[in-house]
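Sat 14:20. Reprocessing the chain from the morning session after the first attempt stalled halfway. Input below, unchanged.
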Amino acid sequence: MTDLPPGWAKPTLGELIAHDGIFTDGDWVESKDQDPNGSVRLIQLADVGDSRFLNKSSRFLTRSKAADLNCTFLKKGDLLVARMPDPLGRCCIFPLEGDERFVTVVDVCAIRLGSAEIDSRYLMRAINAPMVRARISEFQSGSTRKRISRKNLETVPVPIPPLNEQRRIVERIEAMFDQIDRGVDSLRKARATLGLYRQSLLKSAFDGRLTADWRAKNAGNLEPPAALLSRIRKERDTRYKAAFEAWQTALADWRATGEKGRKPAKPKRLNSYPDKFVDLQITLPDLPFGWVWAHLGWCSSGPEYGTAAKSSESGDVPVIRMGNLQRGRIDWENLVYTSDPDEIEQYTLRAGDVLFNRTNSPELVGKTSLYKGERAALFAGYLVRVNQIEEIASGPYVTYFLNSPIAREHGKTVKTDGVNQSNINGTKLQEYPFPFCHPAEQAEIVRALDARLEAADVLEAEIDAALTRAEAMRQSILKQAFTGRLVPQDPTDEPAAILLARIKAARTAPRPRRALA
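Finished this time. Tokens:
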């Protein structure tokens, strides 16, 4: 910590506790000790926020069990300090009222000052300040679960000004933080609005509203639904014949070279799909002229699952996993790799591939991203390569649709749910309802979405930067506050050394004996 102004002191946390205060760990309450019908609530780490009591937990034990365990009951105004991340050392004031109704877990330290010499609001802010939090981090230990012991926490020094200045500092911090909070609240609302805007934009793209003006200008070039489907079927037949002929050539070459290497796989005949949907549980919007709802499988040569081989932290080629699929794009962070030549040959991605997340949490299953050939990569087994036929439906068009509200709503109705994960297999994916339209209109939809969503991304980045600046401003305010630069000093204030001496004297004074009956 930097040098402090005159009248300030730098005691340890333990030295701030008066004779009738407490500085103690919470209680060791195991699962077997708990009772959902109990009247004593168990306050947990999840309840302790940074300067805020989060009130998240819902664990209880009986009053008799609390007595058996010799639990320490919390009181309103106690300070709670988390001895485990995240972040380590975060502190809040306990706000709930009720005698012998609350205890806390062992990894939460309870502080009761026991005197009016220290403002508890000041001490909470000080513990959460960057310089004190840094000292707490110096004492952390543990290989996997970092923590600070209560004994080490007691030795952490804290800057203490005169009592009147403590109050002035708190009032100034709270006034400035309230102003920042209002700005942050507005930013978060704007960010949430952007999310709604994205979904509204995707919805309008696939019910025809987004390109209504384009269709009006190109009305003479639009084909009726029957002609559109006929063209799609012809394109599929052409694709299959080309694949079959290529296979025949590859097979002949393989035989001519002594059948070395892997035998070329014969292409499977493309599936056909009924004209009508069976057991569809969502209502599809009406489409404009030149569009038609049909199964997504009509634009695919067949779904393909990714590699199930184990990957490692290093290797020749990265393997895209479900966590790398983010908002229609590939996120190239947190990669794993493979060097297996057979896996690389079979599962290497091609520019324009659409990847569908077939297994994930219920809210994330079905998210889809487009691989643009940014770098060589494979795809993992929880992903499906759609294998769209570009002449029928482009990769960006398919990706945007599968991330749209219509597709997500349909996915919720066809997913199968496990314990923690949901699944949508390749067969169900091919049976998705899909809005087919002319490739030229698809291109216009993609162009419009690219431009508007890119603008939304830029605005979101600006909002995120503003939120980051707001947090940096908080930290700057706290740094100024606890180095004596936020409010002016008053030379008539009683120095902190005197109030600390009173705390110490009261703590060390002999206790009066009780009179005998």
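The radius of gyration is 32 Å.
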